[in-house]
């Protein structure tokens, strides 16, 4: 089954049930004929922009409007002044007072690729998951934030 079909099934499950864990979602997908690993499911959730919200009944996964990330990306990108990297770290310069917001956006959108970010007023340090992925992550961030690619 294709990734697109799997994504559709994930959206269907999340729009009809309150799912509290990835294991619970994997079981629901298995009932629909999708046998996915936790790693694949985690990537799918990130790609779909799925978030977790807390309610009085506990936390559960929720679909965020697809347009939300598409709307935020150019707004966040407009705050970026420059980007540079060495073999292990990425430094992003932003407009004054904007580094924290850009860092929050990157942390949320690139969970599997970024260990974390450290923000000052106008400078953001991005720490990639591994040194070998720094160049690829830099290209991805440059494309998304500066060049406006999806």
Record the SSE blueprint.
Elements: H1 3-16, H2 22-31, H3 38-48, E1 51-55, E2 58-62, H4 66-78, E3 80-85, E4 90-94, H5 99-109, E5 114-119, E6 123-128, H6 134-146
Antiparallel strand pairs: 1-2, 3-4, 4-6, 5-6
Can you tell me about this structure?
- The protein is α+β, with helices and mostly antiparallel strands and 150 residues long.
- The chain folds into 2 domains: 3-62, Winged helix-like DNA-binding domain superfamily/Winged helix DNA-binding domain (Arc Repressor Mutant, subunit A, Orthogonal Bundle), CATH 1.10.10.10; 66-146, Gyrase A, domain 2 (2-Layer Sandwich), CATH 3.30.1360.
- The chain is built from 6 helices and 6 strands; from the N terminus they run αααββαββαββα.
- It has helices spanning 3-16, 22-31, 38-48, 66-78, 99-109, 134-146, and strands at 51-55, 58-62, 80-85, 90-94, 114-119, 123-128.
- The strands form 2 sheets. A 4-stranded antiparallel sheet has the order 3-4-6-5. A two-stranded antiparallel sheet has the order 1-2.
- A hairpin with a 3-residue loop joins strand 5 (114-119) and strand 6.
- It is elongated and about 50 Å long.
- 20% of the residues are buried.
- The model has no long low-confidence stretch (mean pLDDT 87).
Going by CATH, the architecture of the largest domain would be 2-Layer Sandwich
Find the count of extended strands (DSSP E, 2+ residues). 6
Mean of residue pLDDT? Answer: 87
Count of separate DSSP helical elements:
6
For the record, the CATH class of the largest domain is: Alpha Beta
Helix content: 40-55%
Q: Please list the strands of the largest sheet in the order they lie side by side.
A: 3-4-6-5
Structural classification: alpha+beta
- SSE order: HHHEEHEEHEEH
Please, how many domains? 2
């Amino acid at each position: 089954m294709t990734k697109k079909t799997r994504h559709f099934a994930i959206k269907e499950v999340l729009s009809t049930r309150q799912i509290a864990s990835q294991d619970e979602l994997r079981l629901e997908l298995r009932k629909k004929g999708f046998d996915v690993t936790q790693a694949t499911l985690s990537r799918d959730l990130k790609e779909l922009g799925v978030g977790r919200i807390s309610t009085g009944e506990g936390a559960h996964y929720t679909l965020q409007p697809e347009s939300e990330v598409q709307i935020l990306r150019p707004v966040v990108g407009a705050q970026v002044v420059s980007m540079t990297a060495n073999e292990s770290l990425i430094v992003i310069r932003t407009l004054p007072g904007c580094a924290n917001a850009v860092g929050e956006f990157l942390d949320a959108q690139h969970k599997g690729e970024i260990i974390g970010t450290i923000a000052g007023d106008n400078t953001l340090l991005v720490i990639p998951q591994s040194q070998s992925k720094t160049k690829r992550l830099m290209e991805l961030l440059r494309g998304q934030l500066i060049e406006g690619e999806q």
